Amino acid sequence: MSSGQPAAGSGQQPAAGSGQSFVRSTMRIFDLSLGEMLWARRTIFMALIVAAPVFLAVVSRIVSANGTAVLRINGERVGGGGIFGVMIWILYLKFIIPALGVFYGTSLIADEVEDKTITYLFTRPIPRRSIVMGKYLAYVACAASVVLPSVMIVFMLMVPFGEIGRSFGPLLGDLGIIAIGLAVYGAVFLLAGVMLKRPLVAGLVFAFGWEPIALLLPGYLKHFTIAYYLQALMPQAMPADDTLSLLQAVVRDVPSATVSLLWLLFALVIALILAMRAVESREYILEQ
User: Fold this and answer.
1) What is the pLDDT of residues 171-211, one digit of tens each?
2) What are the structural domain ranges in the chain?
3) What counts of helices (H) and strands (E) characterise the chain?
4) CA 207, 86, 81, 240 torsion: positive or negative?
5) Which of 39, 71, 180, 208 could form a cystine bridge with 78, CB 3.0-4.6 A?
6) Half-sphere exposure of 146 (CA within 13 A, CB side)
7) Are the beta carbons of 116 and 14 closer than 8 angstroms?
8) How far apart are CA 185 and CA 180, in angstroms?
9) Apex CA 187: angle with CA 131 and CA 169, to 5°?
10) Alpha-carbon gap, residue 177 to 230, rounded angstroms
């Protein structure tokens, strides 16, 4: 955004006469945005990212079929279910979820401003908050439709057929945690995209700079990260495997699952409310 003439729709929303409920308007923006996201270049980027764990799972399955241990902890061979848990922990929770939240969340509104298309949305007879919510829901649906099937494929490749039944419960936990992570990171970085001039840089610094450092430091700094509460949910979702005790020991000092869920929900709701209020109150003045 820079100085210039005010573009159409930069003022307040049409009050009465719009004839649109918040839910109906949100769903219209959701339908429009979802179609755009599914064919956007960012979706190709997302597909490439989530394909990496699938590729590693295929390689691990081939190596295991030859009788070679893919992973050992404390000298003991880790089974397929244990490796699946490690992949969920390291690849999905620590990298894929925050990366997608950064690249998608920061762009939902910021790209519209940069491309000078935000005013076309504002001239429609719908509340601005519906634009924010519709785009956010489209991001969640798009990200979940790509990431969650990837998790399912990795699960089928890594977990032996005889263990699928007892591992199905932990799998549902993994899927739920990943969905929560996508939703919370997306909401927080959506707010960053609305409030900051360079939201992508700030998001990358937060997700891959601040969070890893804060989690290692003593004190209360870790409480101001999303990863702190997400990783508290992981011990309940990881497959039951004694060889993973070393990995689980890293997260001994964590809140309960209930407290973590409440804080994550709080962060999600507050971020969305602040983002909607910021978009509703801001005068978007773009260059001609």
Assistant:
1) 888 899 999 999 999 999 999 999 988 899 999 999 999 99
2) 22-281
3) 13, 2
4) negative
5) 71
6) 25
7) no
8) 8
9) 120
10) 7
Instruction: For residue 221, count CB atoms less than 10 angstroms from its CB and return exposed for 0-12, middle for 13-18, buried for 19 or more.
Output: middle
From the CB of residue 212, how many other CB atoms can be counted at a distance below 10 Å?
12
**What tokens appear for 80 in the block?**
């397929």
Query: The whole model's pTM is what?
Result: 0.82
How far is CA 42 from each of CA 93, 102, 131, 153, 281, rounded to the nearest angstrom?
Answer: 19, 12, 20, 22, 29
Residues 255/232, Cβ–Cβ less than 8 Å:
yes
Separation in Å, CA 129 to CA 26, 112, 120, 121, 126: 8, 15, 15, 11, 9
- Reported as a single tens digit per residue, the pLDDT across 93-127 is 999 999 999 999 998 888 887 777 777 777 777 88
